[in-house]
Design goal:
The complex is a heterodimer of chains A (460) and B (372). Chain A contains 19 helices and no strands. Chain A is mostly helical. In chain A, 44% of the residues are buried. Chain B has 372 residues and is of the alpha/beta class. In chain B, the strands form 4 sheets. Chain B has an 8-stranded mixed sheet, with helices on both faces. In chain B, strand 1 and strand 2 form a beta hairpin. The chains are: A mainly alpha (460), B alpha/beta (372). The interface between A and B is large, with 55 and 50 residues.
């Protein structure tokens, strides 16, 4: 089930909210746990068992680690064992097909069969969350979960289950045991949810349709338009989904940390990654980069750490080699920035740095999109070719220009700034309700049409 | 408005709307058929352990819920109008003209498909060792080009028709409707505004051209007794979802002739060319010869000669005019007809053979290769 669907909006959500607010506070975790299992099982009934397995393994792992720590013994082997199990699950269900398929290209292994394992939805997110729990307990940064239910609720919680953000256990540990709900919080949640829904349905889906229509075309100009459209699509798709997750969490009394902070305003690649998918970069920094020594251990090992973290970040995004390439591309850019680019660019005008960053990020999305290297190369060749754009593509670009510009504006904090100025005025309340209603209605109208609603981040 | 009041309203509205839609879905009766989409809507799925485990049940529920969402048609219309207002009509498969008329977007010029279809026609003519007539109906968008809004793809009917003509040369006799239609004083009267088909007037014009080319007698438009029905909303209307605006007027041109129609799919004869029961539906075009059938025969005792019409839906209306001239008219629709057309020709000995398609259909139809 995705949030931007009729079934979620008009069936699942009203029933869940009704149940959640009708039961006494102490049963809310139970309700949340059960409805989350239903949410997960809706699309992937067969994989419910897998998620329950991950929950049990990590709950036991956390409990054993905590017990050994308390007894003053080393908990290292328990930690390693539980991490290994998590990575085995992720490796088998996500990467086995890729690895064996690649291995088959070697003549010696040509005969091996590649298992056809459909990717369990959200596995990369909930396995990473579970790992953060055991590690936090091991480090003493979080207490072990009080009950399997409490931990299960944390892992399965439907708002962030299938597309993040990756909520670290320590950030929500307190809220899992007791949390406040209020009218204001609920309204905050609705606001976030509607904005997220509009980002996904009214912006991402539309510019995405342009991109899909332009891929098979010819001409350099339409390729640039397409790349811009795809860059906007992926941002609004993902950040819209994160907003909806945050909003739903807020309606249930949770405060998750924001996952995006206007990434396309960044003036360097490093800054971009401090603003894009923050929960993922935080995870890799906390649990991979810093434990490896981060940047305090000399140049050579620092470079190795950057390379490793970004290779992992890349391949986390999907079981295909182009994601690895995409990650290494960022490793290269970040190293270049650290070594000389940042110092060099410091004297350039901000606008230039901004544009350059956008360009580098957009190239990245080009690598990200094409899982087939040949197709990707052809696309990049088209970007830098001198072929003219056909009438059909030109018409498409112009027809989508208004929505593309709107999306570009929406990727800046301009709207927020204007709203902040306007908010104190007495009409702002009415306007907010009216504007929100119109957005919501247009989203529902678009969903009712259901012409185009693929969800990009499903593959992770 | 105070923040507290505002927040209260937001909570009430949000929960209210979600709950209300759910309630309406459960309480309102569900339609089984959507006339606008011309399809049966999904039925409530049956709960079975096997379909639940495979995830099929979930997908069925989602389709069912989407099909019966309260206010669905209205919402789909809102979305269509929103897309139109934000300037994206040109990206869709139906264009809305400046006058409000709706047009099929031009079919992509698929050279390979043209080659295959024209080759099939040539082979057909060759195997019968006689020439066939070919008539392709220009698209409304080409004839009414001035009505096109900006940012729409150009119609290239002239180029496409030329290409077809060139490749069937020597095998088929193409009849040019383009010049004839474009020189009409009121070209808007030739096509519907909410449907991709031609009107009775357009079909009459084309039929007259064809009969003239065969040296046959034609009837002037004044010779017909015309009855009209308002409120025709055709396929471009349903496909665009741009609800509102006036419907078309559909005309039955009655020459006073006596016709008997036999139909491969129905037993018994039908007296007359018009199936008036379709006039009560919103898409009234099937009033002509009951829409698409694999094989139809029209008998007219006062006519002479025998004509085979290999056709798409454009012919349903035009056959009503050709029927005045021929004693027997056989209409074959290759999308449904499973026999060999060349065998049919050998068996029945037709005086004339005409292949009639709308240009857009001709460009995309893959069934012509079954002519032989």
């Amino acid at each position: 089930m995705v949030f931007s669907s009729n079934i979620f909006l008009f069936f699942y959500l009203p029933i869940v909210l009704g149940l959640y607010y009708l039961v006494p506070g102490k049963y809310r975790n139970l309700v949340l746990f059960l409805v989350s299992l239903f949410f997960y099982g809706w699309g992937e009934p067969a994989y419910l068992a897998l998620m329950l397995f991950v929950i049990v393994v990590n709950y036991i792992g956390g409990a054993v680690v905590a017990a050994r720590r308390q007894a003053g013994k080393s908990a290292k082997s328990a930690l390693v064992l539980s991490l290994a199990l998590n990575l085995a699950v992720l490796g088998y269900f996500k990467y086995a097909g890729l690895l064996l398929g690649t291995l088959r290209a070697v003549p010696l292994f040509a005969g091996i069969s590649v298992p056809d394992i459909p990717l369990p939805i959200g596995i990369s997110f909930y396995v990473f969350q579970s790992m953060s729990y055991v590690i936090d307990v091991y480090r003493g940064e979080a207490a072990a979960a009080k009950s399997p239910l409490c931990f299960g609720t944390y892992v399965a919680m439907f708002p962030q289950l299938i597309a993040g953000p990756i909520v670290r256990y320590r950030d929500v540990a307190k809220q899992l045991n007791s949390r406040q709900t209020s009218q204001q919080q609920f309204a905050d949640g609705v606001r976030l949810f509607v904005i997220g829904l509009a980002k996904k349905v009214l912006l991402a889906n539309q510019v995405g349709a342009l991109w899909e229509a332009l891929i098979p075309g010819v001409g350099a100009l339409s390729a640039w338009f397409g790349l811009a459209a795809y860059s906007l699509q992926i941002y609004f798709d993902f950040s819209g989904y994160s907003d909806m997750a945050l909003g739903l969490g807020r309606m249930l009394g949770f405060h998750f940390l924001p996952n995006f902070n206007y990434p396309y305003m960044a003036k360097s690649v490093g800054e971009f990654w401090r603003r894009w998918h923050i929960s993922l970069t935080t995870w890799f920094r906390e649990y991979v980069y810093i434990p490896l020594g981060g940047n305090r251990i000399g140049m050579a090992r620092n470079l190795r750490n950057i390379l490793l973290v970004w290779a992992l970040t890349g391949i986390w995004h999907g079981a295909s080699w182009n994601f690895l390439l995409w990650g290494l591309y960022y490793a290269l850019l970040l190293v270049a920035e650290r070594l000389f680019l940042e110092r060099m660019a410091a004297r350039w005008p901000g606008m230039l740095r901004h544009l350059l960053t956008l360009l580098l990020v957009a190239f990245g999305w080009g690598m990200f999109y094409f899982t087939d290297f040949g197709e990707g190369l052809r696309f990049f060749a088209r970007l830098f070719s001198f072929t003219a754009t056909g009438v059909h593509e030109r018409n498409l670009c112009l027809a989508y220009l208004p929505i593309l510009l709107l999306a570009a504006l929406a990727a800046t904090p301009l709207g927020k700034r204007l709203w902040k100025k306007f908010e104190p005025s007495p009409a702002s309340g009415v306007l907010q309700i009216l504007g929100g209603s119109v957005l919501f209605l247009l989203c529902v109208a678009s969903l009712a049409t259901q012409s185009y609603n693929p969800f990009i981040y499903f593959r992770f | 408005m105070k923040e507290k009041t505002r927040d209260k309203w937001i909570c009430v509205l949000f929960c209210g709307v979600l709950g209300l839609v759910l309630l309406l879905f459960l309480l309102l009766p569900h339609r089984s058929f959507s006339e606008k989409e011309k399809r049966y809507l999904a039925k409530a799925p049956q709960l079975q352990s096997s379909s639940v485990l495979s995830g099929a049940f979930s997908r069925e529920v989602e389709t069912w819920a989407a099909d019966h969402l309260p206010g669905r048609d209205w919402l789909v219309g809102l979305n269509a109008w929103y897309d139109w207002a934000s300037g994206r009509q040109g990206s869709k498969d139906i264009y809305r003209g400046k006058s409000g008329r709706l047009y099929e977007a031009p079919a992509p010029a698929d050279q390979e498909q043209i080659r295959r279809n024209t080759a099939a026609i040539c082979a057909f003519a060759q195997s019968l060792d006689r020439s066939v007539d070919l008539m392709l109906v220009p698209s409304a968008g080409y004839v009414l080009q001035e009505d096109m809004p900006p940012l729409t793809d150009p119609y290239q009917d002239n180029l496409l028709l030329q290409a077809v003509e060139d490749s069937v040369e020597g095998f088929a006799e193409p009849l040019d409707l383009l010049a004839c239609f474009c020189s009409e004083a009121d070209p808007e009267a030739l096509y519907y505004g909410t449907d991709h088909h031609w009107t009775a007037r357009g079909a009459w014009l084309a039929a007259s051209r064809y009969l003239e080319s065969k040296g046959r007698q034609t009837l002037p438009s004044a010779a017909y007794q015309v009855t009209a029905t308002e409120g025709f909303y055709g396929t471009t209307y349903s496909r665009s979802a741009l609800w509102g605006g006036g419907g078309d007027r559909i005309e039955l041109w009655d020459s006073g002739g006596r016709f008997r129609v036999t139909n491969a799919e129905a037993s018994g004869d039908h007296q007359g060319l018009f199936y008036r029961e379709h006039l009560t539906e919103s898409d009234k075009y099937p009033v002509y010869l009951d829409g698409n059938h694999s094989l139809l025969r029209i008998h007219n005792e006062r006519g002479s000669g025998k004509l085979l019409l290999v056709r798409d839906s454009f012919a349903s209306c035009m056959a009503c005019f050709l029927a005045d001239s021929y004693e027997e008219l056989v209409l074959v629709d290759l999308r449904y007809y499973r026999g060999a057309v060349s065998q049919l020709v050998r068996d029945e000995g037709f005086d004339d053979l005409l292949i009639l398609y709308g240009l857009n259909n001709f460009m995309s139809d893959g069934n012509l290769i079954r002519l032989e």
